[in-house]
Amino acid sequence: MGGSQPVDPGRWRALAVCLVAGFMALLDVSIVNVALPSLQRELDASSAELSWVISGYALTFGLVLVASGRLGDDHGRKKMFILSLGLFTLTSLVAGFAPNAISLVIIRLFQGATAGMLSPQITGFIQQLFRGPERGRAFGMFGAVVSIATAIGPLLGGLLLEAGGPIGSWRYVFWVNVPIGLAALALALRLLPRDAPSTARQPLDVVGSALLGGAVVALMLPLVLAEQGPSSAPWWLLGVCVVLLGGFVVWERRCLRAHGQPLVDFGMLRIRSYSLGSLLILLYFAGFTSIFFVLTLYYQQGHDYSPLAAGLALTPFAVGSGVASVVGGRLVERHGRALAVGGLGVVLVGLIATEVVLRFDPAHVGWFTALPLLVAGVGSGLVIAPNQTLTLNEIPPAKGGTAAGVMQTGQRIGTAVGISVVAAIFFGRLRAGGGDYGAAISTSLIVVMVFVACALVVGLLDLRLRRRRPQAATAA
Fold first, then answer.
1. Distance (Å) of CA 249 to CA 55, 208, 266, 462
2. How many CA atoms lie within 13 A of 343 on its CB side?
3. What's the CA gap between 387 and 383, in Å, rounded?
4. N or C: which end of the chain has fewer CB within 10 A?
5. How far apart are CA 45 and CA 63, in angstroms?
6. pTM (2 decimals)?
7. Per residue in 147-185, pLDDT tens?
8. DSSP 21-73
9. Residue 260 pLDDT level (bands cut at 50, 70, 90)
10. Radius of gyration of the chain measured on its C-alpha atoms
């Protein structure tokens, strides 16, 4: 898998640039949540428009991942990285100037697409630049960025809202990306390795990209709309998704026979570590991202926390996750899948403790949930980074962007499924209980734990199969 290639001496500096860009793209998934009341007040945004400000970003993020990963693999990751980062910075600037809610929704759709173009290039660079234990450490640092960016978004958003004052402060939630993005662009031009010339480049499979993109939209659209009300979501699109996926599989097999360059090489799915690792992270992200969604609502609406206070209450999870991600990246080479399985167990322990604490609905709830969320964060850090390393470990670096795009599409689908299900249960329980936020958060966290437990089952299955393979080889 390219282990004999010379080591790039500037790989760690290139990684630093990638991590900054990845942090911005993932931060925008959650930082906007705490600005929604301000948006509603100043732009006279409806609840549907507010939902689309959040969901539209996630939808287009997931839409372009696979095709963008393939473009990076075939036509140069540095070119794709710089183009994507430049467009992301530009759309962040424009979003801050949005004059009304519908304009902001449209800009967020474009911003999500640029983030989706950027994300697989980062993972592709890690695959390309690092080998052996170093790759585990690099993915550990990227895992820390994923965890911290997702968890610290509400805190950073709260700080920006507090600093910006009562009028127009929501604009800084978008503008904060501009100076960071410009600095990252300058560093990327200088520090990222040049794209190697390739004689095997193929034109992008436009038909396959359209079929897969249509299937992703048909799957995610009813899920993101279900956040506003499950009964109004266009669930019939799930049938369209099945038809488009069937057409995609047929078309990709035809491409494989015709010229051997399909958009997605289904042979990757026969690699057990990749297929099971991708499924594990899909299920985990369904629970992981839902935690922040419902807890932010619970702190702000159930206990009248300010955006800043709600962000601070979630900070222990971010701290635990960030530290454990770096540690997990160093240990994954030695402990393998067992490390991720243990991390899932720790997450469950932390969530169970959080749910027990919240049953009593204490007055100073942020202090009481700090330790359980810290424990859950430590477990999360031992899941995301090690799983990413193990999932992509047997994928050739030349296909790293495409493989990462497929895996990250699963993460976005898991996020949409999790938030849709957990939000429907949270608001449904709230209505049925006459505004009882304690009952709503308790039921929601139980559903989150079910998603995490399903990921744990997948991890245990992979662990068992890994242990059986050496036994079979020894017997043979």
1. 27, 9, 9, 25
2. 32
3. 6
4. C
5. 25
6. 0.81
7. 778 767 778 888 888 887 767 788 999 999 999 999 999
8. HHHHHHHHHHTTGGGHHHHHHHH---HHHHHHHHHHHHHHHHHSHHHHHHHHH
9. low
10. 21
